[in-house]
Amino acid sequence: MRLSLLALLPILIALTTGCGEERSDDLMRQQSNASTVSAVGKDSAALKAVFSDLPALEADLDGFPPGTKLHQSTYEDGTPLAEGYLNNGKPIGPWRYWHPNGVLARSGSFLGGSHPTGEWKTWSSNGIRISHGSYENGLEVGVWSYWYANGSPSMKGPYYLGERHGSWKHWHPGGVHAAEGNYIRNHQAGMWHQWDIHGRPLSDIEYRMVPTQADLEAR
């Protein structure tokens, strides 16, 4: 029984991680796609009409480097795909992206050089929130929250420079607690508590192999 439980927790963590987590490389790929998709006939009037019914993208251009311009792109059918600011071909300031059905997919800001910064939010194509947290120089920092496609919580906990560090909680898709414990630089550490899908407690797992400073520096 002990061995089966030891095998269970990593699977639970993997399942919850795969449901809702959006990493910065995904942001980069989507931004790149947005920059290369053709506008509606490359007609500025047509683009203006597409985005005219949307809330204005708020930004103080006086705080941006010279040459910063508004970028707007659409899917082939004219549905908005992305809107934000570019400077020397790189995103800067606030950006937002849409799913093909017109539902807002994500929003946040970039530093010059394509690094996401500050608060970012993502939603599913049904408008259900998927993730919410902050970046610093392109890395996750502070507390992040994730949700399943049905809107129930998936996991929540703090990051330190892009790695899970501190107390994290994981839930089953139905909203029942799945696991809870600490990470040290992306490694599970100390005592972890876990529950089955009915909320019944399972045996705790203690992770004794905490990485040394040398291990961390070698990564």
Keywords:
219 residues; alpha+beta; Histone H3 K4-specific methyltransferase SET7/9 N-terminal domain; 2 domains; 13-stranded antiparallel sheet; 4 helices; elongated; disordered N terminus
CATH topology annotation of the largest domain? Histone H3 K4-specific methyltransferase SET7/9 N-terminal domain
Please give the number of β-strands.
13
Shape: elongated
Number of helices: 4
Structural class based on helices, strands and sheet pairing: alpha+beta
Overall CATH class of the largest domain: Mainly Beta
Number of domains: 2
User: Largest sheet, if any?
Assistant: 13 strands, antiparallel
- Fraction of residues in β-strands: 35-45%
Uncertain regions: pLDDT < 50 for 5+ in a row? 1-25, 31-42
The radius of gyration over CA amounts to 21 Å
Give a short summary of the structure.
With 219 residues, the protein is α+β, with helices and mostly antiparallel strands.
Could you please describe the fold and organization of this structure?
By secondary structure, the protein is an alpha+beta fold. The chain has 2 domains: 1-19 and 148-201, no CATH class; 24-146, Histone H3 K4-specific methyltransferase SET7/9 N-terminal domain (Single Sheet). 20% of the residues lie in helices and 44% in strands. The chain has 4 helices and 13 strands. The chain has helices spanning 2-18, 24-36, 44-51, 213-218, and strands at 69-74, 80-87, 90-98, 104-111, 115-123, 129-136, 139-147, 153-160, 163-164, 166-171, 177-184, 187-195, 201-207. Strands 1, 2, 3, 4, 5, 6, 7, 8, 9, 10, 11, 12 and 13 form a 13-stranded antiparallel sheet that branches. The chain is elongated, with a radius of gyration of 21 Å. The protein starts with a helix and ends with a helix. Residues 1-25 and 31-42 have low confidence and may be disordered.
